[in-house]
Write a structure and sequence with these properties.
2 copies of one chain form a homodimer. The relative contact order of chain A is 0.08. With 136 residues, chain A is mainly alpha-helical. Chain A folds into 2 domains: 3-72, Orthogonal Bundle (Multidrug-efflux Transporter Regulator, Chain: A, Domain 2), CATH 1.10.1660.10; 79-135. The first copy, chain A, contains 6 helices and 3 strands. Chain A binds a DNA duplex (30 and 30 nucleotides) through residues 5-7, 16-19, 21-22, 26, 35-39, 56, 61-63.
DNA sequence: GTGCAAATTCAAGTGAACTTGAGGTCAAGA
DNA sequence: TCTTGACCTCAAGTTCACTTGAATTTGCAC
């Protein structure tokens, strides 16, 4: 359980000190002690920060992420909700796979107008039908 | 090539009229005509909007998305860059897979402190080593 | 002990992506 | 023709996630 200062945490996580203070302010992470005024962190915050970054990448707000990670505090940890969140992430992954394929298609296909291309149409149509179910 | 009004586009895409006007303002989409003042859209904008939504989900800014989709305008379309973007999307997908597994793990694992759990540690360590390569 | 680079707080500022509101226009149905 | 509801423009406001700057404090190398 070694203690790391804010600069070290910042260096290892890629998150700026100002952001680390902000995360603390909104209750996402905490420094386990102070050396004078200076924050000292347990290295487990590195895990937390990695999860936070992934959560952000998945499109969750910091509040939502806080609810997921901090759920264990004060007796919470809604396991069903967590699986639901994982489902959302997997849905997002499916979207991104379509996007990746679409980008590569556009990069490779000679057709000037992709809306006519049957391959492209097939991709978009399946994406669109899935999307309409989502925001319906 | 049927024309749809802004309400219909909004309904089918899930994007609010105000956002559609905003997208037009920044050059992401365009209405192909006006009926009086009112915008009339070609239904191909539905494809574009779906791609925009996926791009947003992948974490790209509207400007970046504009550069990807609008590249064909005025002779651009950097195919290599597009493959590079697809690579980025696939990297993001890998992150999200880790997140999904981490969430399900936390939901299912009885351990109170996951930083001790070897399964969890393995996931996080691989994620962390990949992350450090990214922001190094 | 002295100096100073690096930390701290707190308030205000920033950029992205929209939304809202006020005031005006107009297509279409009764 | 007249009404009316949906659309328009343009400026200003909002939220989120931070960043920046000013004023202050302090751990640590010398």
């Amino acid at each position: 359980m070694k203690s790391l200062d804010i600069a070290e945490i910042s260096r290892r996580s890629g998150v700026k000190p100002s952001a680390l203070r902000y995360y603390e302010e909104i209750g996402l992470i905490k420094a386990d002690s102070r050396k004078g005024l200076r924050r000292q962190y347990d290295d487990s915050v590195l895990d937390q920060l990695a999860l936070i970054a992934m959560g952000r990448a998945a499109g969750f707000s910091l509040q939502e992420i806080g609810a997921m990670l901090g759920g264990s505090e004060g007796f919470g940890l809604d396991r069903q909700r967590l699986h639901q969140r994982a489902d959302e992430v997997e849905q997002r992954i499916r979207e991104l796979r379509v996007l990746s394929r679409a980008l590569r298609h556009v990069a490779d296909c000679a057709a000037p107008d992709h809306s006519q291309c049957p391959t492209f149409r097939r991709m978009m149509d399946s994406a669109l039908s899935r999307a309409s179910r989502t925001h319906a």
